[in-house]
Design goal:
The longest helix is centred in the middle third of the chain and has 18 residues, at 46-63. β3 and β4 (40-44) form a beta hairpin. The radius of gyration is 29 Å and the shape is rod-shaped. The protein has 2 domains: 2-61, Ubiquitin-like (UB roll), CATH 3.10.20.80; 69-151, 2-Layer Sandwich (Translation Initiation Factor IF3). The protein has 156 residues and is of the alpha/beta class. The protein is built from 4 helices and 8 strands; from the N terminus they run ββαββαβαβαββ. The strands form 2 sheets. Strands 2-1-4-3 form a 4-stranded mixed beta sheet. A 4-stranded mixed beta sheet has the order 5-6-8-7, with helices on one face.
């Protein structure tokens, strides 16, 4: 097997010699690439290796962007004042970097007004054009007509 490590020349040794070399250094012999010909082993402090690996994974997880989805509910006959009130909330959510899931909920027999609900959502999307872009157009799912709006990328 090929033995590598910090301050160690890359050399091909048998298993016994490799383990003995690792023990002399007070470190562990870890198999890095078993499929290589010959297999590659590294002489390292295994606990330190695990610690650094966990720290890197934690760092990557912290840097990953978390998607926040805010929901805004309308009725098929939502009034202009209510519409504008909810529109202002949506603009605030989008500028804060959250996605907005706007939906019209049809209660009982109000499902006959599904065209009205679609017009309402399209008007909503048109009003949000400067701070967000439509990710999915209005579509009916059961008693809800759903539309997703994501924030526009800010130019820095």
């Amino acid at each position: 097997m090929r033995v590598v490590g910090d301050g160690i020349e890359s050399e091909v040794l048998d298993i016994g010699a490799a383990i003995k070399l690792a023990e002399e250094k007070g470190l562990d012999l870890v198999e890095i690439s078993p499929n290589a010909d010959p297999p590659v082993c590294k002489i390292i402090d295994y606990k330190k290796f695990l610690y650094e690996h966990k720290r890197k994974q934690k760092e990557i997880k912290a840097k990953a962007s978390k998607v926040i989805i805010k929901e805004i509910r309308f009725g098929p006959q939502t009034d202009d004042h209510d519409f504008n009130f909810k529109l202002n909330h949506a603009k605030k959510f989008l500028t804060d970097g959250a996605k907005v899931k706007a939906y019209v909920f049809f209660k009982g027999r109000s499902i006959v007004f599904k065209e009205q609900g679609e017009v309402l959502l399209l008007k909503f999307a048109q009003e949000l054009e400067e701070c967000g872009k439509v990710e999915s157009l209005p579509k009916l799912e059961g008693k809800k007509m759903i539309m997703l709006v994501s924030p526009k990328k800010s130019k820095k």
